[in-house]
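so ive been stuck on this for like two days lol. basically i have the seq below and the ligand is flavin-adenine dinucleotide, smiles is in there too. i just want the complex predicted, nothing fancy, no docking runs or whatever. if the output looks off dont worry ill sanity check it later, just need somthing to start from for the group meeting slides
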Amino acid sequence: MHPFDYVAATSIAEVNSILAQHGNRARPLVGGTDLLVQLRGGRFDLDAVVDIKGVPEANVLELNGALKMGSAVPLAVMYEDQAVRDAYPGLIDCAELIGGIQIQSRASMAANLCNSTPSGDTICPMIVHSAQVNITGANGDRTVAVEDFCTGPGRNVLEDGEWVLDIVFPAPASGFGAAYERFIPRNEMDIAVAGAASSVTLDGSGKITDALVALASVGPTPVFVTAITDLLVGKEPTEENFVAAGKIAYDAVSPISDMRGTIEQRRHLSGVLTRRTLTKATERAKAG
Ligand SMILES: Cc1cc2nc3c(=O)[nH]c(=O)nc-3n(C[C@H](O)[C@H](O)[C@H](O)COP(=O)(O)OP(=O)(O)OC[C@H]3O[C@@H](n4cnc5c(N)ncnc54)[C@H](O)[C@@H]3O)c2cc1C
């Protein structure tokens, strides 16, 4: 492994300075559960790794209507917060199934996003919560919707010198519910063969006013299926409509066959998991 400097940054300015100095030869580190594995495996070399866990703004977990989650907040800190659990059960679904307790105690949701694999379990749930990513760097700040963040397997919109400071989730509207499920061949410690996140918003009469579905591990990036929104808005949350949504999901994905599953299996799972998560999201929406 190529030797690299380890910098435990304590301010945004310090992170910006290290990243600006090294360009694409430096990267932020949170839990290191992807980065250190990749460095050891020789996927790429770095001259510097900037640990952002000591940056106060990256450790914010603030629920004040909307939820602001710093990019270094460990998954376990998020899901052990009872107020966050109550408000965002669809996010808890994914946080609790990543790796095991050791991974969840170190790794963050933002880092899962920045790793940008199509199988990243937190990305689709963030999309269906309409989350916004706050990006910073020596050249300024910008905000990007999660669905626009990933550009290919392991690639994203971050330019050299940029990093994610935090992610903001809008306050759940009344009648909102969300859910995430994935299929893996064993109970834990594997990456998704396919995954689906859904959110549903119901009006006072029980009709759907919004429905968002995003699918994991079935394309080069997470697949946000806006045709399902077009299908479901204004309709009743019935089994029949959710089966129709599943058929759209089946056609919308572009999976590959690999050692974990075939194209046909992944298409089939996309349909099934879409229907299931829409149903669970609706139950949660009704329960308030
Ligand atoms: C045993 C094991 C099981 C796992 N199980 C799962 C699983 O079930 N589901 C799943 O999705 N993943 C899984 N993973 C992968 C990994 O744990 C997750 O992707 C995790 O969320 C990464 O978080 P981290 O904080 O460890 O990231 P790190 O390794 O610290 O960073 C990951 C990448 O993001 C970059 N990065 C981190 N923070 C920022 C930032 N703020 N701004 C810009 N770039 C940043 C880093 O430079 C690096 O390229 C597993 C890994 C292991 C080792």
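The chain is about 35% helix and 25% strand. The first helix runs from residue 12 to 22.
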